[in-house]
Specification:
The chain has 13 helices and 10 strands. With 342 residues, it is of the alpha/beta class. Strands 1, 2, 3, 4, 5, 6, 7, 8, 9 and 10 form a 10-stranded mixed sheet that branches. The protein is globular, with a radius of gyration of 20 Å.
Length: 342
């Protein structure tokens, strides 16, 4: 019998924290498959730790060693090798809530046994920020029905602080594969593509209001650190453009209109993140890059440009003049503080 769930853990020189992540998954036992994807680690014992766990937990853990291809290629490798009916990615510096994991695995098994499989199960995640007294939980209460199968038409109003990220998602493995999703190599921020491209292939959903994923925020070299993101802004822009291209290629005719609505909402947020980082940087070169990403959107899809440019977020990111830029940056920083992000 197939495993109910495959969890892939992309690891790159992750010796300092990967075992915490692995151990948080082990209580699910034989129902899950854990793929430790060593993405060409050379600076520490990541490859050896992966092999040690594979030897200690045969039938549960598999170690996959590959040449360095970046986070996206590690996710791709996990999806290619997954034997579970559902597929989940958890980064090596993050971890799972064991109680929530067991509840999710049990529910996925129940859905399969009842003949009512879903294409995507969603669960909550928490920003586990180092030293923070209040840790922000991203949930979907009031947005999606709880503990029942539904389709996109059941989606309610989503607040600005609510969004579906890789951390929330458990895909049906077949659905993720059928979407044709192959994440680019050597590129950061591809988790935005993971939580975007397969959505038109998702017909049946399920939401469990349990905090499963602990998203650790605190390492100085973390990819979501603001200064790190500005230093890698070209990769953020690359992912942003790919998301625009996905929307331009997708034929939404015959699909639930709520899918298209949500994808617009999420692209609106990504355009805002990209624009905000370029404004925070404030260099002449980066301000020009901001103009270019909006020009690319306008050139490739005037209809999508009008919809996003004149949204509340689009307007806030394109206020004129020096004072407008200051107001945009202030709004962005306030939003980051509200979310408890970085």
């Amino acid at each position: 019998m197939s495993k109910i769930l495959t969890v892939a853990i992309p690891c790159y020189n992750s010796e300092a924290y990967m075992e915490h992540c692995i151990r948080s998954l082990l209580p699910a036992g034989e129902d899950i498959e854990i793929l430790i994807v060593d993405d060409g680690s050379t600076k520490d014992r990541t490859p050896q730790i992966a092999d040690e766990y594979q030897e200690k937990y045969p039938g549960i853990i598999r170690a996959i060693h590959q040449e360095n291809g970046g986070h996206g290629e590690a996710v791709n490798a996990g999806l290619r090798n997954a034997s579970g009916l559902y597929y989940k990615v958890i980064d090596s510096d993050d971890w799972a809530d064991t109680k929530a994991l067991k509840a999710i695995v049990a529910r996925l098994k129940e859905l399969e046994e009842a003949g009512t499989p879903v294409d995507m199960l969603l669960a909550d995640f928490v920003y586990d920020k180092e030293g923070a007294r209040h840790k922000k939980v991203v949930h979907f209460r009031g947005v999606f029905p709880v503990n029942r199968v539904f389709d996109w038409s059941a989606m309610g109003h989503m607040k600005e602080t609510q969004y579906i990220l890789m951390h929330n998602i458990f895909y049906r493995t077949r659905t993720a594969r059928e979407s044709g999703m192959v994440l680019p190599k050597h590129t950061f921020y591809v988790d935005n593509l993971f939580a975007f491209q397969p959505f038109p292939y998702v017909k049946k959903l399920y939401y469990m209001d349990v905090v499963f994923y602990h998203y650790y925020i605190g390492r100085e070299d973390q990819s979501v650190n603001e200064q790190v993101m500005i230093g890698r802004i070209d990769q953020q822009i690359k992912v942003n453009r790919m998301m625009i291209d996905i929307m331009n290629r997708q034929n939404f005719e015959g699909l639930d209109p709520h899918v298209e609505k949500y994808m617009y909402i999420y692209l609106d947020k990504i355009m805002t993140v990209t624009s905000s980082l370029l404004l925070v940087s404030g260099t002449k070169e980066n301000l020009e890059k901001k103009k270019k990403i909006w020009a690319y959107l306008k050139k490739t899809s005037p209809k999508m440009y009008r919809r996003l440019r004149w949204s509340i977020l689009g307007i806030s990111m394109n206020l004129p003049g020096w004072l407008g830029r200051k107001l945009s940056v202030a709004g962005y920083k306030a939003a980051r503080k509200l979310v408890g992000f970085n």
